[in-house]
Design a protein that fits this description.
Helices cover about 15% and strands about 50% of the residues. The chain has about 90 residues and is an alpha+beta fold. It has one domain: OB fold (Dihydrolipoamide Acetyltransferase, E2P), CATH 2.40.50.1010. A hairpin with a 5-residue loop joins β1 and β2.
Length: about 90
C-alpha cells in the first residue's frame, strides 16, 4: 500500500447509489493526486470538510485508470473543527 500526504483541494461526488463513489484531489508538493473513495463513511466525512484547509494522509493503491483508491485516511493538521466532528479512523 502506498501513502500520500497533501492538501485537500477539490471534492466531487461521482455516484451515490447503489454505492457511493467520491473523488478528491490532493496536492502533494507540486503533484496532483486524483483520489477515489468507495467507502461511504469516508466519503461522507470528506464532504463535510472545507477545501484548501486540511492536509490529508491517504493510504491505498492505484487502480487501472490511474486513480488512487483510498483505503485508509487521516487528517494531519487537526484543529478545533476536526476535534468537534471527529476523525475518520
Amino acid at each position: 500500500m502506498e501513502t500520500h500526504t497533501g492538501l485537500l483541494t477539490h471534492i466531487k461526488v461521482f455516484k451515490e447509489k447503489p454505492y457511493a463513489i467520491t473523488g478528491m484531489l490532493i496536492w502533494e508538493n507540486d503533484i496532483c493526486i486524483n483520489c477515489v473513495i468507495k467507502n461511504r463513511p469516508f466519503a461522507t466525512y470528506v464532504l463535510s470538510l472545507p477545501m484548501h484547509q486540511y492536509e490529508i494522509e491517504v493510504k491505498g493503491n492505484y487502480n487501472s485508470r490511474g486513480q488512487f483508491d483510498v483505503k485508509h485516511m487521516r487528517i494531519v493538521n487537526i484543529d478545533s473543527y476536526i476535534a468537534l466532528i471527529g476523525t475518520p479512523e
